[in-house]
């Protein structure tokens, strides 16, 4: 785990092996990806109806969720775990548009996220990037850019957006549980995940992910809710991402295939 200055190329960068962050960047129409990522993304797009739409829906709910946390819930510190490569409307942009003093720490396992993130954020004193593995919460918490920067005696917005489904349920549950315990009352947990509501495309996406990116799991809505523990879900609970406090009308009875790949929820730690 590092918070080093920008170095290129990062020592553990392998151009020939796709990564989650870079393949997701392809789905979002980004440019921070290599041939191997594009080949995998095209294969997945060809097999999963609505995959790109689902990635875009995930970004949209991230924006709505962060806006809710910063504006309505008054959260001014965010820890974004599995943050991905910088793209449009990053967490810090949304949070700091609501509150310029909001602090944001990005954590991701992909070394390219560290390189791009630090270059992008060099002039933003309220935002930090850490390269680390969310399966090691103690190591992440020990980072100066995390515990020396965010105040865990005050409420934090903890985000696992579009990343929990890369962890086996038990591991994810243990990791999220550790973070739930570490948070002060008034904190929020914001999660989105690939969901399993019985549609074949959901398990197919999990299979493609697992076979090509080492890990991939589709969670039932009940399993996603279980990750929230005794935190209190805010309305509308755990729902398809397009239905989580949409900006405009959405026909819940006629969701597109892409709108049925992921679910989102936000919950409050009351005590
Ligand atoms: N949170 C962003 C979003 O929702 O738009 C990015 C989601 S992207 C699909 C998942 C991210 O999780 C990738 O950037 C990947 O590198 C990261 N990731 C996967 N496993 C991880 C782990 N064990 N530790 C840290 N990051 C991880």
Automatic annotation (TrEMBL):
It comes from the Bacteria. InterPro entries: SAM-dependent_MTases_sf, SAM_dep_MeTrfase_SAV2177_type. Keywords: Methyltransferase, Transferase. The keyword Cell membrane does not apply. SUPFAM superfamilies: S-adenosyl-L-methionine-dependent methyltransferases (SSF53335). GO terms for biological process: methylation. GO terms for molecular function: methyltransferase activity. Its EC number is 2.1.1.-. The keyword Methyltransferase applies. Gene3D superfamilies: Vaccinia Virus protein VP39. This is SAM-dependent methyltransferase. It comes from Actinomadura adrarensis.
